[in-house]
Amino acid sequence: MTKKEITLRFILFVIIVAAIFYYVSWKWEEFNRQTEEIVAEIPVIAEVPVFTMEKEPKKDFFLDTRWERERVYSRQVELLKEIISDKNADSEVRKEAQNELVKLTRKMGQEAEIEGLIRAKGYTDAIVYLFDQSAIILVKQPDIDASDVARIAELVGHVTTLQANQLSIIPKP
To answer: CATH second-level architecture of 61-171?
Structure first.
């Protein structure tokens, strides 16, 4: 392809893009009006709550803590997926990111499973943080006795290999 052909193709491309831009800007008001008409015709089936970031902390410690934990985990998953999909990254680094993603998703599932089991045993709520050799369990309860510790340790043992002496069970009213 000669320089002249390249230049002509480029000029043709610029003209086409300019024409499309002109057409869209010329029809913009009409597009907006039609969109508003279509949206107005859609029946509302149910009101969907809108969640926004609030500057004031919420009153529910467990809800706030769980939300913050999920936000952190989501960011970690996102970063690991970026590393895995980066074709310029070293294959060992990508493999390590894949392993970490598997570990993180397993941990997230185990935490959610333990929290569900604790609630199923009659406790109002719980937050579980799993680590390699330990766990921290916050239980929504004014105080915890030995039978509570044994019951919660048994539930954790069903999901993980952690023993009672590796657990920190903290009451949080």
So the answer is: Orthogonal Bundle (1.10)
